[in-house]
Write a structure and sequence with these properties.
Blueprint (H helix, E strand, L loop, with lengths): L2 H14 L6 H12 L6 H18 L1 H17 L6 H22 L1 H5 L5 H21 L11 H12 L8 H11 L4 H23 L12 H28 L3 H19 L20 H6 L5
Length: 298
């Protein structure tokens, strides 16, 4: 793989994981645009754990407070007595939809939905939905004002990120805005909500490590994860500061432009719909039986 490639992919993961622009889309596109061999799901999973570590470190005080309040609420049998204990329960509740739907639609998520046509469409559609949320949301409620209904609905928005190109941070941020949260509060809750889901997803994807499509060394993995961690920390802090005084429209425009560019590259034949899929997996639209009868050109 090489250390330079590891640095680039780690940087892409760290920045795009937390901005509402879809890390999946960028990790799928980047190797193809540079003419690199796709590193595979195992590599992506390991560097994703680097960004999980970034969230854990950045919000370490918040996490400790939530856990303490949650345990204290259980002991006192007052589950919703404080804002922190309520948020802890809301994070647990909001994680359920993505876990359940992720298992139910696992096959489609790993095959047909990984087409770059789906990624491009998701980039554009969510951009329009985010723009609508910006224009109609109240932007007035704080985390203290959240209810069970908010936790459940934003959790359902997070589950939409199972469609590649949607962006987990993008869907949860949009859901928070629709529920009337201030931009910074919606982003902060989005980060807290990401911890169980992204940790579980990263660990689950490590099952691909034995069948990695591209050879990589421990040094390359370490460098990529470290770069993802550092750039992820910067991206979290930068986004929270940005949303205190600005709207999300810059991300709307970026998503629209990238989605349109993807569609143009796909229709012109310069980019393959199955770019970035695991080696040996049938490309989108080709039945598995047909793929076994003849080799798939890469």
């Amino acid at each position: 793989m090489g250390l330079l490639r590891a640095v680039v992919l780690g940087l892409v993961q760290g920045i795009t994981e937390f901005l509402p622009i879809s890390s999946t889309a960028h990790l799928r596109i980047t190797p193809e645009l540079f003419g690199w061999q796709d590193p595979g799901a195992a590599f992506d999973a390991i560097i994703q754990l680097g960004t999980v570590a970034a969230v854990l470190v950045y919000f370490r005080r918040d996490i400790v407070q939530l856990l303490r309040a949650w345990v204290d609420g259980l002991q006192r049998r007052d589950l919703l007595g404080t804002t922190e204990s309520r948020l802890a329960w809301f994070v647990l509740l909001g994680t359920l939809p993505v876990v359940v739907l992720g298992f139910l639609f696992k096959h489609a998520i790993e095959t047909s939905l990984r087409s770059l046509y789906v990624v491009a469409g998701s980039m554009i559609v969510l951009a329009l939905v985010l723009a609508a949320a910006e224009r109609t949301a109240r932007h007035s409620r704080r985390l203290d004002d959240m209810t069970w209904k908010d936790g459940w609905i934003i959790g359902l928005w997070q589950a939409l990120a199972l469609v590649p190109g949607s962006s987990r941070s993008g869907t949860t941020l949009t859901g928070g805005l629709w529920r009337g949260l201030r931009r910074e509060d919606a982003a902060r809750y989005s980060f807290l909500l990401s911890i169980p889901a992204t940790t579980a997803a990263g660990l689950f994807e490590l099952r691909h490590l034995r069948h990695a499509s591209t050879p990589f060394t421990g040094a390359e993995l370490g460098v990529a994860a470290a770069v993802a961690f550092v750039s992820g920390m910067l991206a979290i802090g930068g986004l929270l500061r940005y949303l205190r005084t600005r709207t999300t429209m810059v991300f709307v425009v970026y998503r629209l432009l990238l989605g349109a560019l993807l569609l143009a590259l796909l229709t012109s034949g310069r980019l393959r719909p199955d770019a970035g899929l695991e080696h040996g997996a049938p490309p989108t639209g080709i039945p598995a039986e047909a793929a076994r009868r003849e080799p798939v050109p890469r």
